[in-house]
Amino acid sequence: MSRLLEIKNLDVSFEQEQGLARALRGVDFLLSSGETHALVGESGSGKTVTSMAIMGLLPIPPGKINQGEILFQGKNLLMLTESEKRILRGKEIGMIFQEPAKYLNPAYKIGEQIAETLMTHFQTDRKAATQQALEFLHLVGLGKNKRVLGSYPHELSGGMKQRAMIAMAICCHPALLIADEPTTALDVTLQLQILRLIHRLKRKFTMGILFISHDLGVVNEISDKISVIYAGKIVESATKNQLFENPLHPYTKLLLLSIPDAAKRGTRLRVIPGTVPDAEHIPAGCSFHPRCPLAEDICHGEIPASIDYDSGHFAACHFVGKKWIDSSK
Ligand SMILES: Nc1ncnc2c1ncn2[C@@H]1O[C@H](COP(=O)(O)OP(=O)(O)OP(=O)(O)O)[C@@H](O)[C@H]1O
Ligand SMILES: [Mg+2]
Question: 48 C-alpha vs ligand 1 centroid, how far in Å?
């Protein structure tokens, strides 16, 4: 599999009155073509800032990219001009969000919006683009009748809006789809349907997917690889099986123990004490140390390096292989 998206040492901050918010502090991960790579972490860990940086949509200022590279098919996206970024967005990289309302324009019918996207990126006339829009709506399960095509976003249910947004995101056959918490606002049955739809479309179009979620249970349904992000840094990265069978970082382990399913298998459901630190107040050393049951003096002072422990299974903790969290407590 070839390298589709490679993020190297990405460092992003926001200048604000309350001080400098260090949103990303050297994020690294690799997404190969055709792979679903999940970026998982609690609220405020830097998931959306990562996706916005890839899309070239960070507000700059107050945002600032201090260092790093975002290589998409080998090209550094941080070097592109605004017009090159606009061509890339939608055509090469599609994006779906938690809130379709932010993405769909309330003033235009769904069919018009999909057709417009197609006409922007391809030399297609309106009639052909509308026909293709209908086919994409069919593909995402919105039927072949013209009702959805001629509807305004507010006339659709939450699940239908989500499907319409997916149709718009994939209509130009992007090589990469970024899905930022696409199912978080939906009820459980709909969540599963949307996850299966995304998975089916990935196969049909051989897309790579960056799937962003705070929920390891959801990620388990869909991903090939997982990177766990904490306070703007990747703390563990591995294939799904490596991560679920042998989590190396205490944060990952605690995230896994907080999935209700894991509790059913005989261990107690855990709640991770405390919260992700504000980006203005990142603790020194390992940023997880104030919440970590394994922390010792070294964790307060030294940032642990990310080390490959098992053919691509990276973790950044001083105690990998030396200390373990007792999952029975
Ligand atoms: N425009 C901004 N100005 C200042 N700080 C920001 C800005 N955008 C994001 N941040 C900060 O960057 C950090 C990461 O935010 P981000 O939105 O990426 O989190 P997230 O992982 O997507 O969380 P959630 O799960 O709640 O969506 C947070 O501390 C946030 O407050
Ligand atoms: Mg977010």
Answer: 7
Q: Is residue 211 part of a domain?
A: yes
Compute, in angstroms, the gap from residue 309 CA to the centroid of ligand 2. 29
Residue pLDDT tens, the chain, 329 long: 799 999 999 999 999 988 999 999 999 999 999 999 999 999 999 999 999 999 999 999 999 999 999 999 999 999 999 999 988 988 899 999 888 877 899 999 999 999 999 999 898 999 999 999 999 999 898 976 688 999 999 999 888 998 999 999 999 999 999 999 988 877 888 888 889 889 989 999 899 999 999 989 889 989 999 999 999 999 999 999 999 999 999 999 999 988 876 545 555 667 888 999 999 999 999 999 999 999 999 999 999 999 999 999 999 999 998 878 877 66
From the CA of 63, the nearest ligand is 1
Q: Compute, in angstroms, the gap from residue 291 CA to the centroid of ligand 1.
A: 20
Cis peptide preceding 62, ω within 30 of 0: yes
Lay out the sheet containing 307-310: strands in order across: 93-96, 176-180, 208-213, 36-40, 225-230, 233-239, 313-315, 307-310
- The CATH code of the domain that includes 36 is 3.40.50.300
pTM: 0.93
- Is the residue at 154 inside a domain? no
Quote the domain boundaries for residue 234.
Answer: 3-92+174-239
Ligand 1 pocket test: pick from 13, 14, 210 the residue with the most ligand atoms within 8 Å of its Cβ: 14
- Overall number of domains in the chain: 1
